[in-house]
Amino acid sequence: MAKNKLTGKTEVYPFWSMDDIKNMMDYFKMKEMWHWYWVFNAGLLLGRRVSDTLSFRWSDFFYENGRMRDEIEIKEQKTGKVTRPYVCGACKAALQLYIDKTSIDPMENYNGFIVTTEQKTELLENQEEYSEREFEGLLYRATQSQAAAYRKQFKIAADACAIQYPVSTHSTRKTFGYWSVKLHPYDVTTVDKLQGIFSHSDRNITLRYIGIAREDEIKLYNDMGDFITDVEAGKKPVIKNSPVLPLKSEDFREILSKCWEMAANGEDKFDGINKLIGMAERRMI
Prior knowledge:
By secondary structure, the chain is mainly α. It has helices at residues 18-30, 34-46, 50-53, 58-61, 89-102, 118-125, 132-160, 171-183, 190-198, 203-209, 212-232, 249-264, 269-282, and strands at 74-75, 82-83.
């Protein structure tokens, strides 16, 4: 993965391709790495950081009567903020598959970690020997060590899946945002919702974080490439700055009906076009 020479940070992207997401899932299933399969899915479906995902306990997802929760409450390890992700059906299914494949009984391990290590299990068993501050510090270091193991396996999986752009364990969180926007192309509030989910201070930070800004930048580069190619070939370039007016389907039908009515009444074409554009602008989402 290429590093930014100025900051030394590695910039990673969301999974641009649905095939790449599926291939990563299939890899973990094929290798029967059910713990990493769950962590990968939890990142995609809950949009959490890896450190938070590895801190999930069975009690976060289950009531004491064994019924799975629809909402969880977690305190982010990095920011200290409390968030309440919704647990969708696909997330519950991924967790259930993990349970089925590992034969873990959530009720017998109710206060334990969903994905644990010997070190974390030992810490829980001997928690009373430490002060609260000591325990939190030791648990933090144990979780970071576990996250490092996941990052290593994640890179092996990404290489095996021949993913051609920089990804890391943080890509699943970014993928949650990127595909949320793609799945709701006509909802102009999606980015604002994601800004709240990710606790970002600015909308533009969210756009860049989830890869939408980068995707738009790449499109500009490609459009310029097409433009120069056309110029060199002596072709008239296609200008791509036509205005886009997002409309609700019922408003679009109303405008089409108005167009039909105006044509039937023999109204002037140019006056009619201006009226229709005005209607569209007033109903623009």
